[in-house]
Amino acid sequence: MTQSISSEQLAKFQKNLHARESHDVIERAVTKNGILANSYDLKAQAKMEPVFSIDLDVGNVSNQKQSGRCWMFAALNTMRHDMKTNFKVTKDFELSQNFTYFWDKLEKANYFYQNVLETADKPTDDRTVSWLMTTPQQDGGQWDMIVAIIEKYGVVPQSVMPETYNSSKSTEINATLNLKLRKDAVDLRELVAAGTSEAEIEIIKEAKLTEIYRLLAYSFGEPPATFDFEYRDSDNEYHIDKNLTPKTFYDKFIGWDLDEYVSIINGPTDDKPYNNMYTVDRLGNVVNGRPVRHLNVNMADFRDVAIKQLQSGESVWFGCDVGQSSERQLGIMDTELYHKDELFNIDLALSKAERLDYGESLMTHAMVLTGVDIVDDQATKWKVENSWGEKVGKKGFFVMSDNWMEEYCYQVVVNKKFLPEKLQTILKEEPKVLAPWDPMGALA
Hints:
14 strands, twelve-stranded mixed beta sheet, single chain, alpha+beta, globular, two-stranded antiparallel ribbon, 17 helices
């Protein structure tokens, strides 16, 4: 039976508070300086020195600024690392995040229309319809989604399609685009309700996509169909390649077989047994493009494949919950960094599975592993290339403890050749479909 808080209970609460000898000191400190400052552990910080037994030289960090394109930046950063090795591009060279951003927005609009039409017979308070309308599109994404864009459109150097106001500060474009998509959802649902033919709906949808293209071109600039790539390498040698397309540029300067790269997750919830394939309903960006597929494994395998790829000299895209137990300015992510439980004398412990099941954690950010410190055959800490510019961390690089990886990392992308044979076999299996709102469908 539900009961209100009684005066007797309040008296007990107050007695418990004052029974702690240090409560006045703690109250003064927390009210003045906040929770994090007063639970911070300098000893934990001291253990996070940025020294690693495996440390890849990947150049300068990038800066996504006020946009949610970390997944895109992280993917393009892993590719430019190869260009630095193979073509000696300079440390500040970047691939155009604005180019892939443009195409992702256009494709997400079409993907949204498809979902609207497929659910048009359901009421607006249906959970799936409500979920679709909550955020018709956003900046975030997953590895398979950037692959779908690159496979269809290619990539270009940032010098060919540089950043714009709207790509670096996406609040205005997202608000405008979501307003447009919700208005279009009203129109499309009304057409279905009126019994309009599929052919006529397709004509109307194309007209709406024409408007989306115009909106994006005015905001980001129109992507180039062909271009010349002119640069000086790190040895100051001059190079020029003329009349490239985004796809021929990708083929020549990157050339990865993206089918070889797979998403490995660690989602230890009861509904996702390890060593199985999973996908997420209605998650994607390119209609009929590469689907999102995850292989769920235990942390030992998760950690092992990341280490193997780093040992081969190749960086690793990964997804995590970056806001948990992390210090942005110093660039430290460690489970021992804050002791809020000791400060307040309360139990705050949750397992990784409980945090996922109860909404305490999910993937919020993608970055790149560029190093690891292995001591006595055990990983102790990891070097992380972030995309928040050089003013945070050590010139933009973060340090992540292995315990933090265990608790808050959910996804790595590796070449499947680094997987043991038992896991490579599982990649061929048909995936189980998770609900659209499953935490493994979170967009970084």
